[in-house]
Amino acid sequence: VHQSKMDFFCKLGYGKQDICKVLENLGQEALEDDVLKELIRMGSKPQALENQAQPSQLKLVARGSCSATLGLKWLGEDGSDSSDSLRPIVIDGSNVAMSHGNKEVFSCWGIQLAVDWFRERGHTYIKVFVPLWRKEHPRQDSPIADQHILEQLEKQSVLIYTPSRKVKGKRVVCYDDRYIVKVAYEKDGVIVSNDHYRDLQNENPEWKWFIEQRLLMYSFVSNRFMPPDDPLGRHGPTLSNFLSKKPVLPEKKWQPCPYGKKCTYGNKCKFYHPERHHQAQLSVADELRAKTKVPSAPGKEQERSQRSP
């Protein structure tokens, strides 16, 4: 049991020293969920994040050195790779499978459809979390369809099983939602689920903001995975900007004025006037003021001065 826990948390990227400290404090029989909580409380971070920060020293190489270009390519800073600009994807496997199975069957094909959709867009980091007991033989109260897909995704290092075990005939399941939110938060990625994770939002204020801003909901239409074009509402970013690390701002499109030539707002009008393209856009009141300020002819000014007493 101790070795299985060590292997599981090592796969998540935690150091063996931190894992051993936590197991010594909590005991060998501690649940994986409690061990994860203790690692978070200690401030332990996966080694993958630390390794991403360390290679930045490779940038301090003299110009013209080939090692600098190799370091940039190793870091993924080469502009030719478009996958670097896309956010990591973390999929709630149980939510997606039950949604595709109409909340009656755990449909593994729904997970495959979601993974294929993100692969076609160019995402390279895709992780799916599913409870470990889904590997067991399906029962009548929990039917599973296309269970072989889980084995294929596990071999591709896409699917990750959250730990579960049986104690005196009862299944003890770890809270897989915490794994999903934590990995997506650390990777600065996107959560794919129709769950709102309200309990985790109340648990951590940083997670609350992250879940509100990085949760991608979806629908299945005729075996087609379809996320919304506006994940954060009508006034939010587009789907492509939502899934990109560097969003592209759209060009400003001018809407024609509904009043047309009858508009009296002039340059204060916020709409587009094609007839004023080469004219100074002045309002009617401003045009009248400009005309009154025009000085009269010099001959008329002399006549007025002579007539005046």
From TrEMBL:
Keyword Magnesium included in the entry's annotation: yes
The entry's keywords: Endonuclease, Hydrolase, Magnesium, Metal-binding, Nuclease, Zinc, Zinc-finger
Region (Disordered): 285-309
Zinc finger (C3H1-type) in chain: 251-276
Record bears the keyword Transmembrane helix: no
Obligatory cofactor(s): Mg(2+)
Family as reported in the entry's similarity comment: Belongs to the ZC3H12 family.
Protein name as annotated: ZC12D ribonuclease
Species this protein is from: Hylia prasina (green hylia)
Gene giving rise to this polypeptide: Zc3h12d
